[in-house]
Specification:
The complex is a heterodimer. By secondary structure, chain A is mainly α. Chain A has helices spanning about 1-30, 40-55, 60-65, 70-95, 105-125, 150-175, 175-185, 190-195, 200-225, 230-245, 250-270, 280-290, and strands at about 130-135, 140-145, 150, 225. The chains are: A mainly alpha, B alpha/beta. The structure holds adenosine-5'-triphosphate and magnesium ion.
């Protein structure tokens, strides 16, 4: 039984990372009907910016001195990496997607694949293809309770992801920019007539989605110990499946989908075989596409974004 | 009905030589007209005549291939839709253009996107609810679950929340029962009394000619007839083609 709880905790922690990434897919899809294939690479770049920011802020010195990296500095790393990725997302939108926005739907899709490949290769040039050990932004502490081992890192991942998701929910529901995003996803011409600046709102959507992906990247680095330039491929794909599972375009759906994929992956690894941990995601994708292609929370005329 | 304001030096809307193309095919071919401050002008014509295309070009939802659009004395030809809304010109589009997944209140508040000061927003909401019947008791209902007529009311109310100076209405009577049409046109006349300039597109020619001061008749993208509504009502060509009366 304690092993089961262990798997659940690990699954929720991994799943909340998927959820953070899935939100970016779903918000962009809700507005542009575009699958932003480069989103996994934004996640990867977020992880690397966290890596470099942490070493710039002297994480190695703290490590050498046997002291933990101060929590305040860890938050600085998180916030700055999110800001850098927001900028990257805005640049991708402005340089790659905006010029093809009114082209037939296949064009932006192929553009997205191109951006994704470009960023993978840029990362291999800039950071070398070798995996890197992620700096200990948080020093690991272990708590044992009833045979279940919980690390502060797993808890921090869950808490940070949850806080960001609640923040996003409040932003989308309560702020005028959030309302503009929802309006855009429902009726773009009517939104324009309200006086909403469509370009600015799309920019905000990319900024927010990319910042969340960067947070996911840092949490992923902490969780998985190493990062590499291709880390966005598989994880990005899983997060995309999470968005489809929840109902693409639907914000709560992305969260539910992310958590479910994380749980499914962890339980499969624990009880079947670690060999199947990646396969289960794609099995879920096939099943959902056959049985409920609109996703778990997606209904016809469901409120999107 | 208040008459047009002759003291205003320039008309609120001035269109000259407007062309709209869809993939090389011209839907609007050189339309010119103007609407003075406080005036109600109707644009009438058969299905496919190009009425909606003219309105969309006026607010920038489709580009003007040629010609110019002046709003409140300023050239607005190339500027994006949201900036024309900021200038004070907005369109209540044809059909159901409400935000279906949002509540009636959220829809109305979005109409005030550019005028969101919380104090006056509340006052405006009350004023709009007084002007547009039946929305008050449905504020918490999802827009998509309103009846067609209620959605039309909501679309008009939402536009009014932004305090426009020029309101473009695309077939407000479409698909509505006669009683509701009377109600909506009653609202339009009331709204016009508040000093708003209105350009009205309407298939219901009789109603349009009763509501507006002047009208233009559009046939396959060109204005073929213009005049005061009081005169057009008796024009034999109008009677034959649009009022269903034999010559
Ligand atoms: N997006 C579009 N692409 C191609 N052709 C279009 C498009 N929109 C309108 N048209 C064509 O342009 C012409 C004018 O259409 P428009 O909608 O302006 O007419 P309308 O006078 O508003 O008609 P209705 O009374 O039926 O609403 C029509 O022939 C229509 O088929
Ligand atoms: Mg029309």
């Amino acid at each position: 039984m304690s092993e089961f709880f262990q798997q659940i905790i690990n699954g929720l922690s991994l799943g909340s990372i998927y959820a953070l990434i899935a939100l970016g897919y779903t918000m962009v899809y809700g507005i542009l009907k575009l699958i932003n294939f480069a989103h996994g690479e934004v996640f990867m770049m977020g992880a690397y910016s966290g890596y470099y920011l942490a070493s710039w802020l002297g994480v190695e010195r703290y490590q050498a001195a046997g002291r933990g990296f101060p929590l305040g500095l860890a938050l600085v790393v998180l916030v700055l990496a999110m800001a850098a990725s927001a900028l990257l997302g805005v640049l991708i939108e402005a340089l790659a997607y905006r010029p093809v926005r009114s082209a037939p739907r296949l064009t932006p899709l192929i553009t997205a694949i191109g951006v994704s490949l470009f960023l993978q290769n840029a990362a291999m040039l800039l950071f070398t293809p070798n995996p890197r050990a992620y700096p200990p932004i948080l020093r690991e502490l272990r708590f044992a309770a009833g045979g279940v081992i919980v690390t502060n890192i797993k808890l921090a991942i869950f808490v940070v992801a949850l806080a960001l998701m609640v923040g996003l929910h409040l932003f989308v529901q309560r702020t005028w920019t959030g309302r503009a995003m929802r309006a855009l996803s429902m009726n773009i011409d009517a939104a324009r007539l309200m006086g909403i600046d469509v370009n600015a709102t799309i920019r905000a959507t990319f900024a927010i989605g990319s910042a969340l992906a960067a947070a996911g990247g840092i949490l992923f680095g902490l969780d998985q110990i190493t990062i590499n330039p291709l880390m966005g491929v598989l994880t990005g794909l899983k997060a995309f499946v999470a968005a489809v599972l929840g109902g693409i375009g639907n914000i709560p759906g992305a969260v539910v989908g992310g958590l479910l994929i994380g749980l499914a992956e962890q339980l499969t690894a624990g009880y079947l075989s670690p060999d199947y941990r990646d396969a289960i995601t794609f099995l879920i994708l096939v099943v959902i596409l056959v049985l409920k292609p609109e996703g778990l929370l997606g209904v016809v005329r469901q409120e999107k974004v | 009905m208040n008459g047009p304001d002759a003291s205003a030096s320039e008309p609120d809307l001035e269109v000259a030589g407007l062309h709209v193309l869809y993939g090389g095919i011209a839907a609007v071919k050189g339309v010119s007209f103007s609407v003075a401050r406080g005036e109600i002008v109707a644009l009438i014509g058969a299905n496919g005549a190009g009425k909606t295309s003219v309105l969309k070009a006026l607010v920038g939802l489709v580009p003007a291939a040629r010609g110019s659009v002046r709003l409140f004395g300023r050239d607005a030809t190339g500027i994006p839709t949201h900036r024309r809304t900021a200038l004070g010109a907005t369109l209540v589009p044809e059909g159901r253009a409400i935000f279906a997944g949002m509540t009636v209140r959220e829809n109305l508040e979005l109409g005030a996107f550019l005028k969101r000061d919380p104090v006056t927003l509340g006052q405006r909401l009350e004023r709009v609810l007084a002007l547009v019947p039946r929305l008050g008791e449905r504020l918490a209902q999802a827009g998509g679950t309103l009846s067609g007529g209620e959605q039309q009311m909501l679309a008009i109310g939402r536009a009014l929340m932004g305090e426009p100076r020029l309101l473009l209405l695309d077939e407000p009577s479409l698909g509505l029962a006669p009683k509701l049409v009377a109600q909506i046109f009653g609202s339009i006349v009331e709204i016009a009394k508040t000093g708003l300039t209105i350009l009205l597109v309407e298939q219901n020619t009789r109603l349009a000619l009763e509501t507006a001061h002047r009208a233009h008749v559009l046939v396959t993208g060109e204005i073929v007839l213009s005049g005061r509504c009081s005169e057009l009502r008796d024009d034999p060509r109008i009677k034959a083609a649009y009022l269903g009366e034999a010559l």
